[in-house]
Specification:
By secondary structure, the protein is α+β, with helices and mostly antiparallel strands. The chain has 2 domains: 168 residues, FAD/NAD(P)-binding domain (3-Layer(bba) Sandwich); 161 residues, 2-Layer Sandwich (D-Amino Acid Oxidase, Chain A, domain 2). Strands 5, 6, 7, 13, 14, 15, 16, 17 and 18 form a 9-stranded mixed β-sheet that branches. It is globular and about 65 Å long. Bound molecules: flavin-adenine dinucleotide (FAD).
Length: 391
C-alpha cells in the first residue's frame, strides 16, 4: 500500500510528488507520458506538450505573482537535483497602451516582491528591442532577472526525475477510477492494475472532469487554444535572437522568442485566447482537439497581428499551428482542496498560466494532502472549490 498517490504526471502533479517526497515516504506518481503517435492515441493528452511557457514574477494578481516568485526561486534547485535544465532567462516585456491598468497592477505586485522591473515608454521599448513596431503611446513593463521562458516538457521530466531520485515510484499508466475503501483509497488503472493508498491527489489538468476521477464535478471550463508558430531562418533569426518573452495587454496575446523544437528548427510562437475558442466537456472532444492542429481562423487572425508588431516576420515562409487546452476555474486560481474527507484532494486549474507557478501550486497541494499546517501567503480559502463542503 502506498502512503500517497498523485494522479497526473503534468506540471502541478509532478511538482506535488517531488515536494511530497520531502514530507513522507511511500509516494507514487501515476500518469502517462506524451504519446509518440498523436493520431493513434486514444487516451489523455496534456497542456504541457510544448517547448516554451512564459515565466515571470510580475502579474496583475498578487497571488499569481507570489507563487511564481516562489517557484522561480526553486527552478535552480530542481534543475540541479534532476540534472535537467528547463529555464531560460530571456526577460519579459509587457506591452500596454493608453489603458495602463494591467501593467500598473502587474508592476505593483511585482515590485512588492522585489521583481527586477523597469517601466518603459515607446522610445525605451524601441531602444531595447528595435525589431518591435509599437505605437507612440505604447507603455512597457520590462522584467529582467528571473523572467523568460521554461520548457514545460523538460520541467515535468525534471520534477519527475527529482521525485524518483528521492524515492517516489513512477507509474506510466492512466487512472480510470478511484474507489474510497476503509482506511484509504483504491485507484484502478487502464492496465488493469489496482493500487491502494492512504490518500490520493488528483492533478489531471484539463482532463479532470472528463475523466470523472473526483467524486464531484468541479465544473472546470476547458477551452481549446490555438498557437501559431513561425519558423526562424536566415536574417530574421539573427534579428530576433535577443527577443524577450512578451505579453500584449490589450489583446491578451503572448509571444515567445525563437526556441528550438524537437524537429531541430527554431520557432517563434504566438497565442491569443479568443471568444470563439471551443469549450470541451468530454474525453472524446478533448481527444479529437489534441489530434488536430487548432483553428484556421485563429491562424488568419494571429499572423497579421504578429507581423504588425514584428515586421521582420513578413519574410517568414513557414508557419504552422498547434492545439492545446486551458483549464479555467471559477475563482481564477487553481483549486487545491479536499473533495472527500482527508483522503482525496485535487490540484487543478492552471487558468492559462499555470506553468510558471506550477512548482508552488504543487508545494501547496503536497502540504495539504500531507495534512501539514497551511503556511503560505495565499490563504487556504482562496484555493477552495466554491460550494465544496468536503474540503
Ligand atoms: C497554448 C498554451 C500556452 C500556455 N502558455 C503559458 C505560459 O506562457 N505560461 C504559463 O505559466 N502557463 C501557460 N499555459 C498554461 C500551462 O501550460 C498549464 O496551466 C499547465 O500545463 C497546467 O498544469 P497541470 O499540471 O494542471 O496540467 P497538465 O500539465 O496538462 O498535466 C496534467 C497531467 O494529467 C495527466 N492525466 C490526465 N488524465 C489522467 C488520468 N486519467 N490518469 C493519469 N494521468 C492523467 C495528463 O497526462 C497530464 O500529464 C499555456 C497553456 C496553453 C494551452
Amino acid at each position: 500500500m502506498d502512503r500517497i498517490i498523485v494522479i497526473g504526471r503534468g506540471m502541478i502533479g509532478s511538482a506535488a510528488a517531488r515536494h511530497l517526497t520531502s514530507i513522507n515516504d511511500g509516494i507514487t506518481l501515476i500518469g502517462p507520458g506524451e504519446p509518440a503517435d498523436y493520431a493513434a492515441h486514444d487516451g489523455v493528452f496534456a497542456s504541457h506538450y510544448d517547448e516554451g511557457r512564459m515565466t515571470r514574477i510580475s502579474d496583475p494578481d498578487p497571488d499569481w505573482a507570489v507563487t511564481s516568485k516562489r517557484s522561480i526561486e526553486r527552478y535552480p534547485e530542481i534543475e540541479a537535483e534532476s540534472g535537467i535544465p528547463f529555464f531560460t532567462n530571456s526577460r519579459y516585456l509587457g506591452i500596454g497602451g493608453t489603458d495602463t491598468s494591467f501593467l500598473d497592477r502587474a508592476e505593483a505586485a511585482g515590485r512588492a516582491l522585489g521583481a527586477d522591473l523597469t517601466r518603459l515608454d515607446a522610445q525605451g521599448i524601441r531602444a531595447l528591442y528595435p525589431f518591435l513596431s509599437v505605437p507612440d503611446d505604447a507603455d512597457g513593463l520590462h522584467e529582467d532577472r528571473d523572467a523568460g521562458h521554461l520548457n514545460p516538457r523538460a520541467m515535468v521530466k525534471a520534477q519527475t526525475e527529482a521525485a524518483r531520485k528521492r524515492g517516489a515510484t513512477i507509474v506510466n499508466d492512466r487512472a480510470i477510477a478511484i474507489y474510497p475503501v476503509p482506511g484509504g483509497v483504491e485507484v484502478e488503472l487502464a492496465s488493469g492494475d489496482v493500487r491502494r493508498a492512504e490518500k490520493v491527489l488528483i492533478a489531471t489538468g484539463g482532463f479532470t472532469d472528463a475523466c470523472g476521477l473526483p467524486p464531484l464535478d468541479l465544473k472546470l471550463r476547458v477551452f481549446g487554444r490555438t498557437v501559431l508558430l513561425a519558423r526562424m531562418e536566415g536574417v530574421v533569426a539573427e534579428q530576433l535572437s535577443d527577443m524577450p518573452t512578451m505579453g500584449h495587454a490589450e489583446t491578451g496575446a503572448y509571444i515567445l522568442p525563437p526556441i528550438r523544437y524537437p524537429d531541430g528548427h527554431n520557432y517563434l510562437k504566438i497565442g491569443i485566447g479568443t471568444t470563439d475558442d471551443p469549450e470541451f466537456r468530454s474525453l472524446t472532444e478533448l481527444n479529437h482537439w489534441f489530434k488536430n492542429p487548432g483553428s484556421e481562423e485563429n491562424r488568419d487572425r494571429f499572423r497579421p497581428f504578429l507581423e504588425g508588431l514584428i515586421p521582420a516576420l513578413t519574410g517568414v515562409a513557414h508557419w504552422h499551428t498547434a492545439s492545446c487546452v486551458v483549464t479555467w476555474t471559477a475563482t481564477g486560481l487553481p483549486y487545491i482542496d479536499h473533495v472527500l474527507d482527508n483522503r482525496i484532494a485535487v490540484a487543478v486549474g492552471g487558468n492559462g498560466k499555470g506553468a510558471k507557478s506550477s512548482d508552488d501550486w504543487g508545494w501547496i497541494a503536497a502540504h495539504l494532502v500531507a495534512g501539514l499546517d497551511w503556511e503560505h501567503p495565499v490563504g487556504r480559502a482562496k484555493l477552495g472549490i466554491p460550494g465544496n463542503i468536503a474540503g
